[in-house]
Design goal:
Blueprint lengths: L2 H13 L13 H10 L5 H4 L12 H6 L19 E2 L5 E2 L2
Antiparallel strand pairs: 1-2
Amino acid sequence: MRPDLRAAEERAGAVVGTVEYRDLGPLRAQETVAFARACGEVDPRLLDPDFAGFEVHPLYLPSVLRGPAGASLPNTGPTACSGTRFPGPMDWTCG
């Protein structure tokens, strides 16, 4: 196995079975709606906070949670989704 893969395997093995809790602060409907729009959603359950069955897009939280807690990676963590910018693999901006 390549050394970089071995190191990744060791890091992953060290956290298998652990539980982590993160305080992301309040979940704001306007940000989840902007995320859903950017994903091309048209379902009112994901776009209208006043809709009786309003839901957060299933990929919103994983996009906010990506990266390890305390990481110094750019555009990660609880403040990464302030305004209308949503970090993630594509690092896109709504608007």
